[in-house]
Amino acid sequence: MPLKRRTWPWHLLLAVILIGLTASLWIATKRINYEWRWDRVPQYFAYRAELPQDSPVAGRISAITLAGTSSHIVIAPDNEGTPVTVTVEKSKVAVGDTVAEGDPVGDEFEWRIGPLTQGLWVTIWLSFISGLFGLFIGLITGLCRVSSNPTLRGLAIFYIELIRGTPLLVQIFIFYFFIGTVLNLDRTVAGIGALALFVGAYIAEIIRAGIQSIHKGQTEAARSLGMNPFQTMAYIVLPQAFKRVLPPLAGQFISLIKDSSLVSVIAITDLTKSGREIITSSFATFEIWFTVALLYLLVTSVLSQLLFWLERRFARSD
């Protein structure tokens, strides 16, 4: 009977390393004499906006009654007309005060989405749309890459080498300032286009590797059954190839989420740009950047677990 391997020393080592990293961070903040202000962060996810309520008529405050968390302010008009009632959560006037038309008499409060939440949403949907278009571009380019047609194969190789050989930041600038200007594209469309073309080149090589990993006997068997080349690729080769390339595809989509932060250079208010704008007004530099990093980590971790679930599901179906 094999001896049971003891794992608690390794768990203890992991705990020691994590404690050491936390202590190092604490020592670093002490050395630079930084004062943490984590209490400022929640308001950038959601906050209660103050909405001033103005008097609809000129007159005198005749009564103020409380109803739960609200106050009903009764205004008697100067022209001795019908009294007007204004409901507010926070009253700014007292009984007997005179108000002119348009004067603030109180405030209402409304929950609104903060800039970090808005930036996170922009990052998610921007990455999703770019990834969707990139997957389509990569699939078409990958098929052209393994095509026997020299023109299609040459164009695919040129596109892949061009995109993979230049920085994404440069591609975003070229796509926005040159192609976007010529075609009169919105900055969001330009950002999605640049990201889709960038990720499409890498997906094309992943698809190519997946197709070439399928044994040629599969193709020969399909042909012997009377399938044409399109049916062979669609029903035999590609389903098997996608199962094999799912892990590298997952890594590419995770990288896309992080690479999407570069679109902030063309004034798209994603998570990174929202973080920079918050820092300029709050001066909570480390708190905001740590929060932004954790949000990226949260999104990529969820995506990683989803793709890992798909990978296991496909593995069980084999």
Descriptive labels:
9 helices; four-stranded antiparallel β-sheet; alpha+beta; OB fold (Dihydrolipoamide Acetyltransferase, E2P); three-stranded antiparallel β-sheet; 62% helix; single chain; 2 domains; 318 residues; MetI-like fold
Folded structure, characterized:
Helices cover 62% and strands 14% of the residues. The chain has helices at 8-31, 115-145, 150-164, 168-183, 187-213, 216-224, 229-259, 271-282, 285-317, and strands at residues 46-54, 59-67, 70-77, 84-88, 90-91, 98-99, 104-113. It is an alpha+beta fold and 318 residues long. It has two domains: 43-113, RNA polymerase II/Efflux pump adaptor protein, barrel-sandwich hybrid domain (OB fold (Dihydrolipoamide Acetyltransferase, E2P)); 115-317, MetI-like fold (Orthogonal Bundle), CATH 1.10.3720.10. It contains nine helices and seven strands. A four-stranded antiparallel beta sheet has the order 4-3-2-6, with no helix packed on it. Strands 1-7-5 form a three-stranded antiparallel beta sheet. The chain starts with 7 loop residues before the first helix and ends with a helix. The radius of gyration is 30 Å and the shape is elongated. A hairpin with a 6-residue loop joins strand 3 (70-77) and strand 4 (84-88).
Low-confidence parts = none
H/E series, N to C? HEEEEEEEHHHHHHHH
Strand content range: 5-15%
Structural class by sheet pairing and helices: alpha+beta
